[in-house]
Design a protein that fits this description.
The complex is a heterodimer of chains A (637) and B (256). In chain A, strand 1, helix 3 and strand 2 (58-62) form a beta-alpha-beta unit. By secondary structure, chain A is an alpha+beta fold. Among the domains of chain A are: 267-400, Succinate dehydrogenase/fumarate reductase flavoprotein, catalytic domain (Flavocytochrome C3, Chain A, domain 1), CATH 3.90.700.10; 473-598, Methane Monooxygenase Hydroxylase, Chain G, domain 1. In chain A, 37% of the residues lie in helices and 14% in strands. In chain A, helix 3 (43-55) packs parallel to helix 6 and helix 14 (498-512) packs parallel to helix 16. By secondary structure, chain B is an alpha+beta fold. Chain B has two domains: 3-111, Beta-grasp domain (Ubiquitin-like (UB roll), Roll); 117-250, Fumarate Reductase Iron-sulfur Protein, Chain B, domain 2 (Orthogonal Bundle). Chain B has eight helices and seven strands. In chain B, strand 6 and strand 7 form a beta hairpin. In chain B, 51% of the residues are buried. Bound molecules: flavin-adenine dinucleotide (FAD) and FE2/S2 (inorganic) cluster. FE2/S2 (inorganic) cluster binds at residues 56-59, 61-66, 82, 84 of chain B.
């Protein structure tokens, strides 16, 4: 596997412009002769499909939900960053670039991040023109808020439903192209495999989730916009269907998988309530702007929060990080909560929770101001927990939320399989080892609206592809493999449900490859997974058949892939002998328990090459160079 | 607590379907309605029986995927709540809960509680957008919009497209859904140029899908998990009348 990032030469601010000029264009009359497959209709997929169809390409679009509007992007709450500097507070493209590289703990590729910051301003223009109802000030201009501890206000938002509004904008742009005939869209259609012919990604195999039909689709390029893999942990803030299948199947066919161990555990989620729990709910990070986090000073203090006097409270973030206090980055806040709970100071029935207290803010600003800022979040909290956060502090605990790792891509967003591109959360991203709040929406839309539609043209204009059809022997072969796998799942007829296996895997990964990791645990995980996987295939129960809507079967296929994927996640965490961003290795910390990065030896993206299930994958390294943002140790003290 | 579920089971669109009773035992009041169903399903699966099929994804009340009648009401009786956000503490021990799919002609049943709601996608495809290509947008702050108008647009844009409005309506009308998108876009300066054509085409598509008329039963407003209001329907009707009059005079601009 050769890793060529194809970073254009020249000063960082000019790279993208230079590249756009140097890229070959597809003759407008030829565009409609090219078919492009886009899997996924989240922010990344919907924006890419719509934009490519506007340019004249013929697009085939797929999603597993019943409508493209339901992609998981819909659930994003807090906002989207852009370097507009509308608040005149010193923001700039360079500052957004710098903050993102630093926030990612110096494990992202500078050139990509700079381009992301550049196009961020176009995203806001585009979305406003589509009718996205962003929050506005009384003068009628766009409002901003500060998010995730940045010192400038660059986050655009639509109440607590920014993802919904941005996705509906992209969905409507997609609908317009479906109406115009440029996009053919297929809902409830799950990609099960990638078709590679003569070294090029030429199509996908899907299962029609209503009829069970397995079939191939061919094209000149394939785009995966299939989101992240947080559900490997079983419990996460992601939608129930989020999966690694598309990316993993591509990996098995030769696409390098980068930094799988870089996952983000979000500090403010509603804690687990019981065994039945099927997913975790995020409480927007913006709450930390006004809420104060604390635990009792005494171990196993069973008094209700209201009866614990100030003197018995430990505002541990304010204590440990006086400069940033409750606004430290996500990874730092999450680990600090875990530390307190592991030490026995946690609150709530399970003792795995900390308080997020608004009493001070309510006293200072009045209840109406708090209601205006967070009303819908407080309501959501009350619906789930039956506790009123205006009166008693919220209980929160970290939960898996976002995955920085993903398919390795070059500057053109192409994976190591020619023709296969990955965009949005599915690629290993511009966020390095830790993503800043409000930057995932930005990256998904940057990739889909403003980057891929250009770079795909260069690929198509410079590549000679032989015509292929769905009757190609390779298509038939991969269809047969997909059918065989389904048959295998159906015929196990074992005793344990898919969810039961998923919970078991999730628990292991959460404990050993979660908020903190150590050699012993990782080695144990790598040893244990193969046996679990074997048991899964032998003892899973998947009732019904393959030729009708069968939700057990859908889940089984996804969990089977998580079982393969989890192993490389643990291997990746094991080889990364440092603590950086969301990846904390207990062996690598300072005396005060802070993360210790190793820039000398670990300044690379780790890219894995598949060598067969159960075989050790090969590790390749893309060295990272920091010409503009010189690595410094992050300090929030 | 212990409950009895009376659940609509139907293998496919052609199957007749019928109710089947299932016990739900030791349900925690803190679990959500869908988690309660998960438990029942896991029990079925461990016995090798096919689980109850139901649509769901985000489980946060925002994707609009979950859709079921609970004791005769779309998403159950809690105000402003989707089925996935409904918690078992709102039910009482020993209760029988009836669970059915949306019953709306243009939403054919796919299996059990799952229906086909692609009619809503087709209505959006008939003009529920602003025609602006990527890259051709003006600088965002060139279009000042008063806070009131922006907030009002947000209120209707919050629609999650679940279909509860149509499911609650005795006429099977989708007017609340369609009017939410129409008033969102028609109310903004960006949506103004296509106002007439958008309204006409979307309403025509709605009719073509076979949704019924609105005769002011007001059930939709009560059922809507995002509490979208019926006055949007009258706004849309005004725009529709303008649009049909003008199209009769000037033709329909080439699109049907
Ligand atoms: C609760 C929550 C809140 C968040 N809030 C914010 C925020 O405030 N700001 C921010 O910047 N980020 C936020 N994020 C992160 C952000 O929402 C996501 O990273 C982003 O939306 C991902 O977009 P995407 O287009 O890459 O993928 P997704 O939106 O996940 O879309 C994936 C698409 O791929 C399809 N798909 C997947 N697998 C298959 C398959 N095998 N076959 C067919 N189709 C498939 C799905 O149907 C779907 O259409 C939040 C995330 C969560 C979980
Ligand atoms: S599952 Fe998304 S709204 Fe209920």
């Amino acid at each position: 596997m050769k890793l060529d990032a194809k970073i254009p030469s020249g000063p960082i601010a000019e790279k993208w412009d230079t590249h756009r000029f140097q890229m070959k264009l597809v003759n407008p009359a030829n565009k409609r002769k090219h078919t492009v497959i886009v899997v996924g209709t989240g922010l990344a997929g919907a924006s890419a499909s719509a934009s490519m169809a506007e340019l004249g390409y013929h697009v085939l679009s797929f999603c597993y939900q019943d409508s493209p509007r339901r992609a998981h992007s819909i659930a994003a709450q807090g906002g989207i960053n852009a370097a507009k500097n509308y608040q005149n507070d010193g923001d700039s493209i360079y500052r957004l670039f710098y903050d993102t590289v630093k926030g990612g703990d110096y494990r992202a590729r500078e050139a990509n991040v700079y381009r992301l910051a550049q196009v961020s301003v176009n995203i806001i223009d585009q979305c406003v023109a589509q009718g996205v109802p962003f929050a506005r000030d009384y003068g009628g201009l766009l409002a901003n808020r500060s998010f995730g501890g940045t010192q400038v206000s660059r986050t655009f938002y639509a109440r607590g439903q920014t993802g919904q509004q941005l996705l509906l904008g992209a969905y409507q742009a997609l609908a317009r192209q479906i109406d115009a005939g440029g996009v053919k869209h297929y809902s409830r259609m799950e990609m099960l495999d990638l078709i590679v012919i003569d070294g090029y990604a030429r199509g996908i195999v899907t299962r029609n989730m209503v009829t069970g039909e397995i079939r191939s689709w061919v094209a000149d390029a394939v785009i995966l916009a299939t989101g992240g893999y947080s559900n490997v942990y079983y419990l996460s803030t992601n939608a129930m269907g989020c999966n690694v299948t598309a990316a993993w199947r591509a990996h098995r066919r030769g696409a390098g998988f980068a930094n799988p161990c870089f996952t983000q555990i979000h500090p403010t989620c509603i804690p687990v309530a019981g065994e039945e729990q099927s997913k975790l709910t995020l409480m927007s990070e913006s709450l930390r702007n006004d809420g104060r986090i604390w635990v009792p000073k005494k171990k196993d203090d069973t008094r209700p929060a209201s009866q614990i006097p100030e003197s018995d409270r430990d505002y541990y973030l304010e204590r440990r990080y006086p400069a940033f206090g409750n606004l430290v980055p996500r990874d730092v806040a999450s680990r600090a909560a875990k530390e307190r709970c592991d030490a026995g100071y946690g609150v709530g029935a399970t003792k795995y929770g900390v308080y997020l207290d608004f009493a001070d803010a309510i006293n200072r600003l009045g209840r109406p101001a708090i209601e205006d800022r967070y009303g819908n979040l407080f309501e959501m909290y009350e619906k789930i927990t039956a506790e009123n956060p205006y009166e008693t502090p919220m209980r929160i605990y970290p939960a898996p939320h976002y995955t920085m790792g993903g398919l390795w891509v070059d500057y053109n967003l192409m994976t190591t399989i020619p023709g296969l591109h990955a965009i949005g959360e599915a690629n290993f991203s511009d966020h390095g080892a830790n993503r800043l709040g409000a930057s995932a929406l930005m990256q998904g839309l940057a990739d889909g609206y403003f980057i891929l539609p250009y770079t795909i043209g260069n690929f198509l204009a410079t590549t000679k592809l032989a015509p292929v059809s769905e009757d190609h022997p390779e298509c038939k072969k991969i269809e047969a493999e997909a059918k065989e796998r389904i048959q295998k799942l159906l015929s196990a007829k074992g005793k344990r449900t898919v969810d039961d296996f998923h919970r078991q895997l999730g628990r292991l990964i959460w404990n050993e490859v979660g908020m903190s990791r150590k050699r012993e645990g990782l080695e144990k995980t790598i040893r244990e997974i193969p046996a679990m996987r074997e048991e899964f295939w032998a003892n899973v129960t998947v009732p019904g058949s393959g030729d009708h809507l069968n939700q057990s079967l859908e889940k089984a296929g996804r969990v089977a892939d998580f079982f393969e994927f989890a192993e490389v996640m643990a291997r990746d965490a094991l080889q990364r002998e440092e603590s950086c961003g969301g990846h904390f290795r207990e062996e690598h910390q300072t005396e005060e328990g802070e993360a210790k990065r190793d820039d000398e030896n670990m300044s690379y993206a780790a890219v894995w090459e598949f060598q067969g299930v159960g075989n050790e994958p090969t590790l390749h390294k893309e060295p990272l160079e920091f010409e503009y943002c010189k690595p410094t140790q992050r300090s929030y003290k | 607590m212990n409950l009895t579920l009376r659940v609509w089971r139907q293998k496919g669109p052609q199957d007749k379907g019928g109710f089947v009773d299932y016990p739900a035992k030791d349900v925690s009041p803190d679990s959500s309605f869908l988690e309660m169903l998960d438990r029942v399903n896991e029990e079925l699966e461990s016995r090798g029986e096919e689980p109850i099929a139901f649509d769901h994804d985000c489980r946060e009340g925002i994707c609009g995927m979950c859709s079921m009648m609970i004791n005769g009401y779309p998403h159950g009786l809690e105000k402003g709540t989707t089925a996935c956000q409904l918690h078992m503490r709102h039910f009482s021990d020993g209760q029988t809960i009836t669970i059915e799919p949306w019953r709306v002609k243009p939403f054919p049943i796919v299996r059990d509680l799952i229906t086909d709601r692609t009619a809503f996608d087709r209505i959006i495809q008939a003009g529920g957008y602003v025609s602006v290509n990527t890259g051709s947008a003006p600088e965002a702050n060139m279009i000042p919009i008063s806070k009131e108008i922006a907030d009002a647009a947000f209120d209707v844009a919050a629609c999650i497209g679940c279909g509860a409005c149509a499911a609650s309506c005795p006429n099977g009308s989708a007017m609340l859904f369609v009017s939410a998108k129409v008033t969102h876009l028609n109310g903004l300066p960006q949506g103004e140029p296509e106002l007439l054509e958008r309204t006409r085409r979307m309403v025509e598509q709605m009719d073509a899908e076979g949704f019924g008329n609105c005769s002011n039963h007001r059930e939709c407003e009560v059922a809507c998990p995002k509490e979208i209001q019926m006055r949007n329907i009258s706004k849309m009707n005004r725009d529709f009348i303008r649009s049909s009059v003008l199209s009769r005079v000037f033709g329909t601009n080439g699109k049907s």
